[in-house]
Structures are given as structure tokens and as C-alpha cells.
Structures
1.
Amino acid sequence: MGDIRLFVSHAEEDADIALGLVRIVEAVMDVPEQAILCTSAPGYGLAIGADVAEHLRQHLTQASCVAAVLTPHSLSSKWCLFELGGAWARATHTYPLLAGGLIQDDLPAALAGRLGGQLGDPKALRQLVRDLRRRLGWSERDAAAAEREIDRLVTIVRDRRSSVDDVDEELGADFVAKWHFIGDTQQEILNHIVRRARGKEHLSYAELKQAFPGRPDLYYRLMQLRYLKFLKRRPIGRSAGDVPQYGWTLSPEYAARVWR
């Protein structure tokens, strides 16, 4: 691996987003050989058998910029939090890039004070590549090709939410119709919260993880139910790793229907 200048931090489940970011950078700039580390981009990943932790430590020290793809998946990934902590400790310039319904308040403590950009916003992506060009000093390539890659990534990010958002817009407050739309897993989670949350301010994420072990997509499922207005979340503090923690309960609208 050569002189790493840009490191793209992401969860395995967000490989398509990370690859889209790399393609934007390649379209915008002449990238020196092996100057990017992104485990999901062909030619920019780790060698088979590499010591992952040691490799990340080494190249976080080298990288002048870290593009952090932040989604519910990455905030529950020990590797992503390790990477972000390393970037912070080494005073690397880190760009928090939000998707999957995350907002500024969801930033982990390692990125506190930094302004996050929404990956579904083409203006934010254009600002990102302008700043990367300035910091990395790589020569400009094809602006038109870059715009096509930006549009492609925006589509990927928005498509992840479109099915939920479209149904929410069409169905409004018709929870009966929404119930038939959501899958068995969401129904099981929702039934559990209905049974356990009455009379409580919230159920913590730790309680829900204990009730649904072996589900790495639990946070994503909860966020889907939040988009559909079955659930609401409230901040209840931060974990030992200083990641925002939330309590979950029924939305007032859905609670009024089931807790009459």
C-alpha cells in the first residue's frame, strides 16, 4: 500500500455508498496510485491476510483526510468507531457524511463540533470535493463526469429511504395499511415495544438488543419504524465510547391507537 492520503471509513453494509464516494473523487481529481484506502473499492482495499487493526493504525497516521460514511450501520460498528477515534486522535481532517436518517445530533463524540454533510444532498457532495481538492492538492479532471457520479451516489442514498418515505407520504396516518407494509421483523419489534413500553418513558437500545440478539440490523429496523411514525426516540445520554444513546417508545399517534 502506498502513501495513503484519503481514507474512506464505512461499515460493510454501506459498501455501495463508499464506492460511490471513491468514484466521485476519481472523476474529480487525478488520484495518485494507491493514495486512497477504501476496503470496498477495487484496487483500494486491504491485501488478503492483512492485520486489519495494524493496517488501519498505520494508514490513519498517513491520511490527511478521512471521509466518514455515517449511518446506523457504522455507528454500531466497532471498526468504524475505532477508525473515527484514530482519526480524531491524530488530528486528521475528518468529513462526517450522514445517511440512513442520521442528523447532526447523531455524530459520535470523536466528531463533536464538526458540521456533518448529508450524502443525499448534491450541494454537500460538491462542497466536499472542492475541499478535498484544496487539501489534497490533486489536479482537476472531468467536472461533467464528476456531476454524473454525484447524481449516481445521491440516487443510491435516496433510494434507501424512498420506499419508506413514499409509503409514509401516501398512507399518512393510516397505521393499518402501514402495518401490512412493514416486514415480520419490524412487526415483532413493534409488538415487543407495545407490550413492554407502556408506563415507561422509553426502552433503551440495550434492552432491545437483549430482546433481539443476533440482529446487526436492529438500529436500522428501529429507524424505519421511526420514519413511518410508529416509534419516536429521545436522547438519553452517551455510551462509554461517547456515541449518542437513544430511548425508544411508541409515537404519540400510534400510542393513542393501541393504548386507548
Note: The mean pLDDT is 81.
2.
Amino acid sequence: MKVVSPRVRKEYLERINSVLDYIRKHLSEPLSLDDLADVASFSRYHFHRIFSAMVGETVGDYIQRLRLERSAVMLGNPLISITEIALECGFSSSAGFARAFRRRFSVSASEFRSNYGKIKGKNGKANGNIGEDSASSLGYDMQAFSRNINPHQEEMEMKVEIKNLPNYHVAYIRNMGYNEKIEPTWSRLAKWMRAHDLLNDGTVSIGVSYDDESITPPDKCRYEACITVPETTQPDGEVGINDLPGGKFALYRLEGDFEDIQKIIKQGFKDVFQNWLPQSGFQPDDKPCYELYHDPGEKGKFSADLGIPVKPL
């Protein structure tokens, strides 16, 4: 893979830093993923994954941490009530703030205030320093991103291929959750395909993951097992018919033991979004990611291209 100039990585950093600045300035206000994606000028569909890869925290965790750290500093002022602090730090209720604060610091906000400067949070740092701009709001910059990417990235050659994929007309069965039920879902779809004489050398098997499990509860994540079919194919019970959009995709080959497939796919996403994408000259397009499966040639193994939809940065 040709190494792209630091300018491209700088573009990613500038966009993410604009989001971090926006969060800092609007921490007491509602902050939606869609609004933050627009600030970054990244696809709403893939913004959260980019943010997590570059910052090292999910968007929700980052915002929650900053709000709690700011509240910890404000508790040093006895003239401000705890309820006022909760609202000022973006919590919709004092009860919700109280639960979140105790989870973070292992004490109540009132106990923290009574012992201000002495209690230490779960990160082991004195709370008197927590929440200051130098430690939190400005904590993710060029150096922080460099710590999150592979330190030998310039020497690393990921086997990523840019390819224009066609549109796919598919039969699918949907599974709720990225879990052990995915394998039986594929088995049921393959059985249905064989019963209707639709499997042949030209069929393509595609897994489609619509959700990011760091945002959506794992049991609510939508997964579709898909196999290409003729245009005349009709839906049948749990088997639906859909069109998957093609276009420009970055393909990253994944291989390994079938029993480790979910772990390998998860790591594949991390590799692409954290190491390859920020230096590629591309950004994610607003389409779902695909798993395009190949015959591994060996029982108990799998082989697939992880397809990330991309467009020029």
C-alpha cells in the first residue's frame, strides 16, 4: 500500500479535533451523534467508529467522562448546589447525575464535596486536577492520535484493495444480535437456497452488519445473512429480498478459525478504521459494511473480505 502524506492524517485529526472542541464548548447541551458527525463532515453512518478508533473512547463515554470530570471540579465551589452542577454539566436530572457520579468516583457527589481534593477517582489521579482543560478537553491532539495508531504505521503494509463492487440482489434472513445465532441463520438461508435450486458457482454470500455494538446493545444489533439471487426471486416467510448498493469499497482480507470469526471481524474493523483509513486518502461513505465470503478450502476455517464503503476525503 502506498503511504499517503501526513496531510491526509492531519485532515482526519483536524476534523476530530473540531468535534472535541465542539463538545467542550457545548458540554452542557444535548449532543447527538448526527450533529457531531455533521461537525466533523464525516458520514453519519460511520462517524462513531472513526471517533472511537482515533480518540480511544466511544463518543458517549468521552462526553460522559468530561461531564463528570467537570462536575468534580465544580463541586469544589460550595456556593453551587449539586443540582445546579448536574444541569450545568449536561445531565437531565439530579438522580441520573448521582448514579453516574457514584459509578465513576465510587462516592456520592456530596461525599466528594465534603472531602474535596482528598478523594481519588477510579483513574487514581487526585480529583483536584480532574476536568481541567489541559487534562480533558485538550487531551486528544496529534500526540494522542499517534498513541492510538500503530507506532510503525509507515512500515506496515495492510493488504487493502480498493474495488468498485456491483449492486447485489439478495435473499436474506435477519438476525438480531452479533452472537452465536448468526451461524444457524446462515444454515437456514443455505437450506432455503438449496430447496429452491438457487445455489450455483456464481452466487455470492454477504454478511451485512448495520449497527456498531459500541452504540447499540449487542442483542439489538441488526445482522443480515445474504446470498445473491435472480431478480425474479420472491420473498418467502423469514426470507426477505433486498438490494445491496455497490460502489467503491476498501476490501481487507480476513481469515482464520470459524470459531473465532466474530473476534477476527471486530479486530478487522479496528485495523481498518484506526490504522489504514486515516492515511488512505479516503473517508467512509454512508453505506453499510459488508463481509464478502469466499470458500476457505478447509473445514472449520473462514475467508472473507471486509468491505468498507469509501469516498475521497
Note: The beta strands are 160-165, 168-176, 205-209, 222-228, 240-244, 247-257, 282-284, 289-294, 301-312.
3.
Amino acid sequence: MTQVLFHDDARLQHCPATVTAADASGVQLDRTVFYPLGGGQAGDRGHLLLPDGRALRIADTRKAREGGGILHVPEPGQDDLLALLQGGLQVTAQIDWPRRHRHMRFHTSTHLLCALVPQPVDGCSITADYARLDFHMNEPLDKDELSAGLARLVALARPVVSRWITEAELDANPGLVRSMRPPGRPKGESLRPPAEGSPVSVQPPRGLGRVRVIDIAGIDLQPCGGTHVDNTAEIGAVRVTKVEKKSAMTRRVVLGFGDT
């Protein structure tokens, strides 16, 4: 099990850590600031700094298949350094902060977009270059109206807070879950039984007794394990770059930053 530090402080850029396992698939640590691919958000990149000053370049971060660990996936061609990362070695885990911060800005932007489009979400992708949400709906969406709405919500400068609720509280408020799986899509996490022909909600991981939620004051509240900015004003200029009709019941909205 890897202790994740980004849930409590997404602004941590580095941390001391101990290697617990390492092989060709990646390096596992006892604790990390690296966010693994999940919830539509890309995994972090960065470096593992060795005691002798050398750095193992990390190209991606993924969840381990078993044990609750996190895999720091190295760039190819570093076998000599990887061979040094034996269990017990002390390293410093350091993320690519500019790239992570773009993920944070985009991820919070998608929560604002959910507030503007109150429809189930059946697809999501958050990268350093763009973000997109697929909404389960057939009504048209106006790109300029959505861009104006995002600008208004960003300018409100509302605090963005992560907190935990109990699984019982989530069960009492099923509307908090916005992510859906359309009929026919392969199953993911545990699912609430759907009405015939309707999408089904993709529930957050269960069994820990609590669920992490992101609360944007007066704007949006939903379960989320991703990384976010501290205030909507920190997002900066963001706009809708494209609205697409992907199917009869899917409207895709793509976001970009105003400086790109």
C-alpha cells in the first residue's frame, strides 16, 4: 500500500520516500506525491532523485494491479539506474509541477462545466493540453454561452475544498455521483442498478467507509479523487474550444486555456 499525499495537499511537489519494490514495470514507494492515471486524469511525470544526485526519469504513473500500490513508470533506456533502486533505498519523489498544475486547473474546470451542464457524464479526459467531458444528453450546447459561464464562475473566486463524507452520506445523496456508464459499455467499479435502457452511475470505490468529495462553494459538490486548485480564480482563462455531437445521446465539450 502506497501512502498518497496528493489527496491532502495537491500542491506538494516533492517528498522523501523509501523504495518498496522495483522492476521493469515500475518503482513502488512507501509514499508519493505522484498522481496515478485515474478518474480521467493523466498520471504524473517527474523524477526519482537518488542519494548520489542522479535522477530516474518517470514517464507515467499507474495504479498497481494488486496491493494498493502506485507504479512510477520510468522512461525506457534507464536500466542502469533502475537496477540501483533496491528495496529500502531512500529517494526523493519529484513531480513535473507545471504539467501537474495544468491538470489541476483543467480538472477543476470540468467541475465548473458540470455545474453549467447538469447532465450525467459518460466520458472524461484531463491532460495538460486539454480537457473534455462527454455528457449523456441530446440537447444542443452553445460553445460561446458555456465559455461565458466558465469565465463567470472562475471570476467568482470560490474556494475549492476536498473533504470526506461517509458512504452512508453518499447513499443518502445519490445525485452527487455524476459519472455514468452508458448501456453496453464494459463494467468498471461497483454500480447502482439502472433503469431499463438508461446509463448507470459509476460509484466511487467502496469499502473504506468514507468517500472523498470536492466542494466548490455554492457551485458543485461531487465525489472525486483527482487533484484541484485551491480557488476557482486560480484556473485563469479557460474556454470551450469545441462542442461535438458524438452520438444520438452524447455531446462532447472540449476545454482549452486562453493562453493556448
Note: Residues 183-201 have pLDDT under 50 and may be disordered.
